[in-house]
Structures are given as structure tokens and as C-alpha cells.
Amino acid sequence: MxxxxxxxxxxxxxxQSRYFDAFRFEKEGKIYEKLGVHWYxxxxxxxxxEKLNRKNNPVEKSASALFQLERATRASEFGHLVIAVLVLLxxxxxxxxxxxxxxxxxILLNLLFNVYPIMVQRYNRPRLRRAIQRFKLLAx
Length: 140
Hints:
Layout (H helix, E strand, L loop, with lengths): L1 H10 L18 H5 L2 H11 L1 H8 L6 H35 L2 H40 L1
């Protein structure tokens, strides 16, 4: 993830793909709630990740801060997606060369460190976009 962060800082890609827009089934977040996104968020709070993240990136109540946070969700999701695909490919190779049991730890860690973070970002982004729209309406 470190090298993805370096590339992100240097190139600052826009991440404007339609992939980052919420699909119809995602907009209310019910699918992610059923898949345990709240459990994972509680886990992040328990291990101190949220505290560390908020210390480095404090939340401000402004449209520009929300816009930056929304962009950060796209950047984070992209980084986790790249790593998840790479780990998935390695898992497939290990599964065929050795066994699925040998690849099970890769699959489990990929779920915990990449798939769930992607789900958290996809859960949060529609909520952030609604908040940004409210700020825009209030500004009119």
C-alpha cells in the first residue's frame, strides 16, 4: 500500500471513473451493512486506526473539507483495489500450485486489509456526497 500512496501523492490522479459512483444497490448502504461494514468500522475504532487517522486528517465542517474527504475515499479505495487484485492473483496461483488451504491465509488477509476497506469507502462515499449536496444547497 505504501507504493500506491507514493504514486497517489506524486501524481494525484483524479479518480473520475464511473466506477467510483455508487451503483443503485449501494446508495443506501444496506448491502454493506449486511456484509458487516459496521463490525469492521468498530474494529478500526477498537484497534485505534480511526483515532490515528483523525489525528492526521481532522474532520472539519465545511464543503471543501467534505470534498477533500470524498476524494480521499476514492484514492483509498483505488489503492486497496489495486492491492486486492494483486493479492487475489497471488492467491489463485498459490491455490493451483499448492492448495486452497495454503492460500487461505492470503484470502483472509486480503478480505480484512483490502476488501473490507473498499466496502467502508463505498459505504461512506454516497453519504459524503449527500452532505456535500446539502452544503451546496445551503450556499445558494
